[in-house]
Structure formats: C-alpha cells, structure tokens
Amino acid sequence: MADINLEDYSVYDHLTDEELLQIAVERSLCDMHPLPASGPRSASLSTSADPPPEPRPRNLDPPQLPPSQPPQPVHVHNYEHPPQFLYKVLKRDFSPLQTIIMDGDTEALTALVQNRSSSLTEPSNEGWIALHEAAYYGQLQCVRILLRADPSSVNRCTLKNETALLLAASQGNASCVDFLLRHGANVNTANKAQETPLFTACEHPNEEVVELLLRYGAQVNLACSQGESPLHEACRHGCLRLCRMLLDAGASMKAKNIYHIQPLFRAAQNGHGESLQLLIERGADVNGQAGDGASPLYEACKNGHVSAVQALLALKADVNRATNAGLLPLHVAVKNNHKRIVSLLIPLTSRVRIQNCGISPLHIAAETNRGQILELLIESGFNVNAELSDERAKMYEDRRSTALYFCVSNGNLQAAEMLLEAGANPNLDVFNPLLIAVRLGWMDMAELLVRYGADVNARMFTQPSAFPSTILLGMESPPILKLLLDNGCDPSLCFQCSYGLKPHPAVTPTRRPTEELQVNRIPQPRCIQYCEVISSSHLCQISGPIISMLLDYVGHVSLCSRLLEILDSRSDWASIKLKAVPPHPLMQLCRLKIRCLLGVQRLKLIHTLPLPVRLIRFLCYDLKCPLT
Predict the structure, then answer these.
(1) Residues pairing with 387 in the sheet
(2) Which residues contact 389 (CB under 8 A, 6 or more apart)?
(3) Domains of the chain, with CATH numbers?
(4) Distances (CA, A) of 410 to 141, 366, 442, 445
C-alpha cells in the first residue's frame, strides 16, 4: 500500500493541538456511528486480521473541569444536532489519541503528525507514546505514519522499559512486529522484568511472531527475572511447534528458573505429553528435580495429568524418586484423589521405598478421606497396620501413627470399618482411637472399634488416673459409658479411694478430659481419683445415675465419704446407696463371675454359649429382662 502523502494535510496547519484532537475524535466517533447526513467513512488502513485488544485505561484524557463546574458538552462542528454519545467523550476510559489509534484513523493521525502535535511524543504516566499505542493495538498503518515522522522513536521505552516491538509481540501483532524489525527495532531489549519480545511471544504463544523474532536474531536463552526462558513458556503452553523452533534455534533444555525448574518440568506440570516426548528425545533429563526435589513425574501426578504420566512412565521416569519431604509420586496422587494415576503407580512403586519414606499412602488416603483410593490400596496389599515414622508422628500433637487413627479422628466410619475388616489393629497408637470416639460421643464409631477389639480400659498418660480413661471421657455420654461397661471396661477401680470414709481435701480444678489428647500437655503430677472427677461441677446433675450404672458392674465395694456426700445431696438418689450395701444378690454375683471367667476379649462370644436366651440377655445386661 502506498504511503500517505503528508503534504495533503496542510489545511490543518493553523489549528492548535487541542483543536486537532477535537476534530480527530469527532471524525473517529462519527465513523463508528455513521449518520444519514454524513459522508462515507474512509476505509480502515489497518491490515490486522484480528480485532484490536480491549482498550487500556490510560491517563491521556483532556484536562478535567473543576468540581464546581458541571460537565460541558463537547462542541461538534458541522452538525446541527450532534449525537448524544458525543457528550460523553470526556468520560471515556481512554484518551482521544488512543481513540484515533484504536480506530486506525490514519487521516486524523496524519493531521496530528503534519502539525507536529506534541501529544504524539508526550509520554503518559506510564511512559507510553503514540507509537507504543499503535504497536499494542496492532494498527500497522499508524505505526508506519509514526515511524516515518520520527524514526528515532522505534526503540523508545515506557517506564517499564517496554519497547513498541515488545508490546506488539505480546499482543501477537505479527505485521507490526515485522515492520518494526525492518525499521531498526532492537530484538533483544527486555523490560524491567527482563522479559524480551521473544519471551512475551512465547508467553502469549504466537508462532508467526516467534519465527520473525528468531529470524532477526533474538537470543533464545535470555531469561526473565524469575529465571524463565522462552522455552519454559512454550512448554507451559504445550506448543509443540514453538518448542521445535526454539530448540532448533539453540534453546537450552537445562535452563533453570529460580526454583530450579527446567522446561521439561513445565510441560509435565501442565500435562503436555507431546512436548515431554519431544524434549526427552532431544536429550532432556526425564528425572530432573526442582528445588524441592519434585520430579516431572511427581508434578504430573500431583496435577492429575494421566496422559503425561503415561508418557513419562513410557519414557522410563523413576516412580521411586522422592521429594525433599520424602514423598513419592504415589503419595501425591493419593493426596489429590487421582485414582487412575494411583492405579498406574501401585505396581511400579517399591514397598521398601514407601517404608523408608516413613508414611504410607494409606495414611494419606485416610487423612484426606479418599475412600475409593483407600479401598484400592487395601486390595493391592498395603499394610493396614503401617505406622508413621517418629519424625512424621511428631508433626501431630496427639502423635498419631496409624491410618485407622486418621479415619477415626475424621469421623469416617466407612473407612475405619474398611481398615478394621482388613485387619487393622485398633490398639497401636499412643492414644487409643477409641478414646477419640468416646470423647466426641460417636456411638457408632465406638461400637465399631469395640467390636474389633479396641481396649475398653485404655488410658491417657497425659492425665494419669486410678481408673480407666475411657470412663473418664465417657461419663458425659451414658450410652457410650454403658457400651464400654458391657464390653468389659472395669469400673471397680472407680471405688478405690485412698481417703475412704475420712474427710477429703478440696478438689483441685483440672482441665476437662477433652483437652488431654495431646502429647505435649504437661502430665498431672499425680493420679486423679474417680471421686474427684465425679464431684466436679459439670457432672453434678448426672453423677448419681453414673454411680448407679457403675455399681451394676461391680461386686463388693465401699463408697468413700465424697461419693456418699454426692448421693446424699439429692433425696431421689438415696436408693443408689443401697446398691453398695451388702449382701449383694446372688444372681448379680454370678453374672459378674461368669463375665470375669470369660474375659474381656471373649465377652462378645456370650451369644454363642449353650444357654437359654433369657440368661444370655441377663449376662449381656439387657435391663429389659427381669432378674427373677
């Protein structure tokens, strides 16, 4: 296309910059909204096939009126009744000059050039001049006009050190990039973030722009301030052709960013299998690790990219390479619930390496409630009784160590049952999982654990007591307390008091039992007695019925002075004292003897004894069964 003859616009010589801008805006706006009386609009001279980018808010607006004066309408020449939209010009988010450039109005721009308008070279608050705007919006003819008027501006930079070439490359404006390069634009000038035109062309992938920049000598391994190279960006987007172009131009596959991440890692991170294969074929290290020890396979597993994982496995990626935190790809796939990837990794992952990691995938599946994956791991033969290493257990205040503990702590009944059915031992942790269920009043969970052999007489070393800690935690939930007693919890120790019928010292306030399941708690200096706990203020309303329930499961015991004081505090509790007064009913003593002979572990087998149903129910403390 022939260049515009600037001499044709001498008619505008006598106008000021402000008048020229006003005319230019009017023409541009009227071209956008033609009226019947207006003449035909001049054809746009822009050769860009794509629509221009969204307008950028700029600081090129005309001076605003003082707040005390109402906005004045723009005076429009040559129109008897100007369109209403012209009254809003002063409120546009972009400047008049920007409007001209966005519309590709070469006539108006040429008029400004002819009259040497200062607005063309005056930088905005961001340091942008007209050439930057034209390059950014891809208006090739505007770029032509501005560069012909001032060739020296081709490498002028914004406050962020952005050249017109970099802005055009960032927007994929290939025709502008080509023109700027042919007219002296520096192909390697980087902005303040050390991003070159080539980097931005890869960051916003455009093959044509990248090809132009490489043809004009762009340095392919210049990295930005974060250490990312153009190849990093091409791999991030999975642009196979861009990757080939950069590699053919000498791009380094060993380039690392500030996190020691190589381009291959970026391709794996974003799931681009073809890019992975290309880089590895060109010699990239399939097991190269980032600063935190993560491998490309680890990242692909973390983000759930099945195809990338399959590609890496086919390319012999090491499934047993751990991160600095000691986690394998299998661990992170379980954590992020990528079941398909877990199934791919299970047969390839070394059980010995898992053991050396100090944490089993079962722990992670249980902690994150990954039920389906937990089932898959159990079916694949993972040890349901694997314990956390001491170092990992110390990360938790309660020093938990088993997958079962995680399930119980999460209240995940289905997962807990799955582990117990597979042979999980409910008595391996520092704090018995049953204590968690009892403390929180989870009846279903407590029943499940007891059914599979949880220790109903479990204790907490952080709060030593002369009686089972299960009773200590279960007193606020009578149904759970009865469950424990029915299954062999020994309440006889609750009635052993060192003071007997003598006066007791004042009760020292203690922490509630719910605060005690933390290893770092300072243990009590002495064992607390049952009478001290039951007399606390938060149990005073239910202490009588609790004592009554405990007496049903013991033989000859004596009530200490404090327990007697509790029962004497209410008249309706007077009958409870009689339970402790001998002689005890023979049936009661026989029931206790039979249960004692069976032992705690066999109490659940009472139903198998060759005894009448009525007697079985009596032995099981079915209180609806008459005792006579």
Answers:
(1) 402
(2) 358, 359
(3) 92-192 (1.25.40.20)
(4) 66, 8, 11, 11
Beta-carbon contacts of 434 under 8 Å, excluding residues fewer than 6 positions away, are 426, 446, 449, 450, 454, 455, 456, 458, 470
Helices marked H in 249-338: 263-269, 273-281, 296-302, 306-314, 329-335
8-state DSSP, 452 = T
CA torsion sign, 488 to 489 to 495 to 496? Answer: positive
536, two tokens: 């606390």
In 3D, which of 125, 151, 216 has the Cα closest to residue 177? Answer: 216
What's the rounded Cα separation, in Å, for the pair 585 and 68? 100
Q: Which residues on neighbouring strands pair with residue 465, listed in sequence order?
A: 528
Angstrom distance (rounded) from CA 397 to CA 522: 12
What is the spatial distance between Cα 604 and Cα 620, in angstroms, rounded to a whole number?
Answer: 9
Count CA atoms closer than 13 A to 477's CA, side-chain side: 19
For residue 528, list its beta bridge partners: 465
Closest CA to 200 of 238, 173, 240: 173
Q: What is the mean pLDDT of each run of 10 residues along the chain (628 residues)?
A: 42 55 58 41 36 50 38 38 39 74 90 86 90 95 94 95 97 96 96 97 96 97 96 96 97 94 96 95 94 95 96 96 96 97 97 95 97 97 96 93 97 97 96 95 96 93 86 91 93 89 73 54 70 82 90 90 90 86 84 87 84 86 54
Distance separating alpha carbons of residues 201 and 144, to the nearest angstrom: 22
Q: Which two tokens stand for residue 97?
A: 């000059």
Q: How far apart are CA 136 and CA 48, in angstroms?
A: 12
The CA distance from 203 to 195, in Å, is 10
Q: Would the pTM count as exceeding 0.90? A: no
Cβ-count burial of 561 within 10 angstroms (0-12 exposed, 13-18 middle, 19+ buried)? middle
Alpha-carbon span 456 to 320, nearest angstrom? 41
Write out the two tokens for 381.
């033969």
Token output for 128 = 């942008």
